[in-house]
Amino acid sequence: MASTSEFRNGLCIKFNHDIYKVVEFLHVKPGKGAAFVRTKLKSMTTGQVLENTFPAGAKIDIVRIETREYQYLYHDDIGYHFMDSDTFEQITIDKPRINAPAFLKEGIICLVLVNTDDESILGCELPQHIEYEVTYTEPGVRGDTASGNALKPATLETGNSINVPLFVNTGDRIKVDPAEGRYVERVK
User: Fold this and answer.
1) How confident is the model over 51-65, as pLDDT tens digits?
2) Are 132 and 174 a contacting pair, CB within 8 Å?
3) Of the candidates 80, 56, 82, 79, which has an alpha carbon nearest to the alpha carbon of residue 68?
4) Which of 48, 83, 115, 128 is deepest in the core (most CB within 10 A)?
5) Neighbours of 60 (CB within 10 A)
6) What digits encode the pLDDT tens for the residues 129-172?
7) What is the pLDDT of residues 94-138, one digit of tens each?
8) What superfamily in CATH does domain 65-125 come from?
9) What is the average per-residue pLDDT within 68-93?
10) What are the domain boundaries of the chain?
């Protein structure tokens, strides 16, 4: 058992018969009354975000979460298949437990979150940036914009469509932030 003084972003706790990750927290000491901790919690099983207030010093159950590297293989109607590169063990993760499944690309290394108490899989996080090849985009024409930050749609090798700057052409390799689904930079 721990107390609310140990809250930090990313901490996983057992609350309301589920496992939640602390997204935000704020210790509040009002001028009148008892201190409390205002939190924003994200369910590791459903992805639901809720706000809760704990009294200062309340007892909480901390859950130990381990991250393991797995390589993405493919997906089918059962789910998304990953492989541990060391043991060659394969696991299947369902779509709601992956933070950006549309941006998965064969062969990328992802971090799989595992509850160490019962070895259950809680989720999968993609890398911060992933490189893709642009398979199709309209050519950018000079003078299309009055400002220097015009965007146009581009289709990636996975079939996703994102907005990219006018200078990106078909066949270029670009970095994408999968969490936000946005263009980062062109790869040389």
Assistant:
1) 999 999 999 999 998
2) yes
3) 82
4) 115
5) 19
6) 999 999 999 887 666 555 567 888 999 998 889 999 888 899 99
7) 888 888 888 999 999 999 999 888 888 888 889 999 999 999 998
8) Nucleic acid-binding proteins (2.40.50.140)
9) 93
10) 2-62, 65-125, 130-187
Residue type, 141: V
What tokens does 50 get?
Answer: 């809720």
Six-digit token pair at 151?
A: 């965007």
Distance CA 184, CA 164 (A): 9
Question: What is d(CA 87, CA 96) in angstroms, rounded to the nearest whole number?
Answer: 26
Structure tokens at 165: 């700057």
CATH 3.40.50.720 fits 130-187, yes or no: no
Q: Are 177 and 129 in contact (CB under 8 A)?
A: yes
Task: Enter the pTM of the model.
Answer: 0.75
- Calculate ∠ Cα 76-156-129, nearest 5°: 90
